[in-house]
Amino acid sequence: MIIENKKGDKYLLCDFFSYIKDQPSESVDLIIADPPYFKIKGDFDFVWKDHNEYLDFCRKWLLECKRVLKNTGTLILWGSVGERQITFARLAIMIEDENIFYRRNWITQANTRGIGVKTNYMSAREDFLFLVKDENNFTFNVPYKEEESTRKDLGKNGKPRKNKYKRVSNVWSDITEASQSSLERSNHPTIKAIKLCDRLIQTHSNEGDNILIPFGGSGSEFISSVKLNRNVVATEISPEYFNDAREKKIKFLNNIYKLEKEKKIIE
Ligand SMILES: C[S@@+](CC[C@H](N)C(=O)[O-])C[C@H]1O[C@@H](n2cnc3c(N)ncnc32)[C@H](O)[C@@H]1O
């Protein structure tokens, strides 16, 4: 089953591994991977017996991603540092030790709400790795916040700074998570805010680039890619979440971006 528009963007109901094996090498500019995190949230997070089994699963899909990514390509890898398991750190170390990708940065997204217990700091963070194949050749369109900079000093060249907005650092706190009332909300337990996806896509790719979303979920990254004129393919293994994406997100696209005429659903 697929959701497709005239331009050829596809949201596929299938296992990522069955899709990727037939795809050509070095054909994708940007991959945004928001995989199951291992024992944090959602039924899909609890299917591995231990973290070694989970890391084996990750190695397998990461190597396929490496194969299809162009040499100038980028992979964004979402994860989370939970209270008991520190699997995301193990994953980052595995990527480094096995030279799967070069890590440019580890970014923390601070959410406005979190999970609180009385004996600990509230857990309100998500994290992602900015990974590239070639550390000297990749797309990075410098991102700025919507907030104006208060700096009065001159730039390095002794002239007034050109951009009046604040630079985005590796701690993000200016984009709020998808809330119960936000447009991207659906039944999926780990929805990413469209604004968050917009920033990632605008920073790490250009119009007309090819984007791959291995773990489509409720479709946030897919919608953002379509909206920003990239070519995108997403895969999602669960029929429930696929339908979620179709019903909620296609509606989102139709309502907000008036793509009604472009929409075509094939079953
Ligand atoms: C963390 S969620 C992604 C959420 C997404 N970023 C969003 O905003 O809705 C991970 C998703 O990966 C899907 N998934 C797990 N294994 C998969 C596989 N082998 N192929 C495709 N999708 C898979 C799960 O069903 C789940 O919806």
Short description:
By secondary structure, the chain is of the alpha/beta class. The protein has helices at residues 16-20, 51-68, 87-97, 194-204, 220-227, 239-257; strands spanning 2-5, 10-13, 28-33, 69-79, 102-115, 123-132, 144-148, 165-167, 171-172, 210-213, 231-236, 263-266. The protein has a single domain, classed as Vaccinia Virus protein VP39 (Rossmann fold, 3-Layer(aba) Sandwich).
How would you sum up this structure, described in words?
- This protein has helices spanning 16-20, 51-68, 87-97, 194-204, 220-227, 239-257, and strands at 2-5, 10-13, 28-33, 69-79, 102-115, 123-132, 144-148, 165-167, 171-172, 210-213, 231-236, 263-266.
- It has 267 residues and is an alpha/beta fold.
- The protein has a single domain (2-260), classed as Vaccinia Virus protein VP39 (Rossmann fold), CATH 3.40.50.
- Helix 5 (220-227) links the parallel strand 10 (210-213) and strand 11 (231-236).
- The protein is globular, with a radius of gyration of 19 Å.
- The model is unreliable at 256-267 (pLDDT under 50).
- Bound molecules: S-adenosylmethionine (SAM).
- S-adenosylmethionine (SAM) is lined by residues 15-17, 34-36, 44, 188, 190-192, 215, 217-218, 220-221, 235-238, 241.
